Protein 1
Amino acid sequence: MALILAIESSCDETAVAITRDGNLLSNIVSTQIEVHKKYGGVMPEIASRLHAENISICLREALEQANVKLEEIDAFAVTRGPGLIGALHVGLQAAKTLAMLYQKPLIPVHHLTGHIYANEYIEPLQFPLLAVVVSGGNSELVLMEDHLKFKVIGETRDDAVGECYDKVARVLGLPYPGGIPIDKLAKEGEHTYNLPTPLHGEKTYDLSYSGLKTNVINLVHNLEQKGEKVNVPNMCKSFQDVAIGMIVDRVRKAINEYDVKEIILGGGVSANSYLRSEMQKVGEDTGIKVQIPPMWCCTDNAAMIAKVAERLYQRKVFAPLDISVDPNWFIEDFEKF
């Protein structure tokens, strides 16, 4: 094993973590949520500038917390994609500079593999498994037969589930990010609004949220034009039942076709209380173990990047210093750069 420093800057969190022999020594995260709230979503240019401001601060704090020096680091890992191109560049340039300065390996890490491997901070993964990766920018069902063997069996065809939550929250006058307020209000409401379920009845593991988002927006606008007041808790409940129901439906179909020992969640939407409870029901109904990450591992952080980097370091998956970012990097191509 090795002493690894990892950097994450794919969206609106600047993060640096350090691990030694698999043990997490430090995990510093600087979030930009308060800044982006006023815009109702992440502003890419602002995010990039804030990463540039915060990266050196996070780096210093991570080193101090871990009580190590840069010259002791064996490898520098960084999120290469997917994510916002400008934000990714900040992290990559920092990691490349450190790797060049200290003449140590540079390890590019796929962001979604980090969300999957964050679960290893609880206990080792059990294969074969089904990983349900749900976040603001991604929604994927990934089959894994062994470590670092990823097969996407389902993905979003348009909006990701987290993105859909944010846009629905905006039209309902709820704060950004939308997942938390919608989840909270849904507990107070009833399913009274008839919303369509995209791709219903199709033989696919893919997801689609654009139509659901548009339907909610149109319904809200139509009610307002008629002078009728939207029952926000009921709309949140109706929306969340459909949005989360699609994921749970795909998971149930997948485990009927694929023999898996474990189902794991990853990504920001895995913090959703309704998704967590519904996935636990899947486990109870099928006898398959369901692994849910702790709350600190759901949002973007560098600890999850370091966890993947440990395995890539063992396999000597190192990148040349002329590597660039890839905002659309496929998880199955995590070794291609």
Protein 2
Amino acid sequence: MTVRFADAEPNGLADLVGRLIETNLETEHGRRRLLRDTIVLLQASDAGIEATVTLSSAGVDVANGPAKWPAKGRGGRRPHLVIAADAYDLIDLAGAPLRFGFPDVMRPQGRSVIRRIATRRVRVSGMLTHPIRLSRFTRLLSVVP
């Protein structure tokens, strides 16, 4: 299963996230079960770039910037999750050890990620309304098995 890029030249964030997910899917086939209907908008605030990751049973689509969603109520699909942080923090999220799909508070790096979320250095919109989608996405993105 490959990751499809919507843009001929993916921006740095889209390329990084897409390649990371692609590698994880190729090396750990069990992660394919995590591909459920989810749209995630990633924002690297310090770099001023965004990427949209769309997961489905058909695979993964990655696009530069936010997808062009129609106005709410007209059948448009808005992101389930919006994760905003500086580029370093976004990359660090992929390396956080997980427990049940969330940063492991029993380990220092997991506590560090939780602390960044609690202090709003990393902002995760949709975390309370879509916790299962967030858990699946973090497990799909995680470089820690």
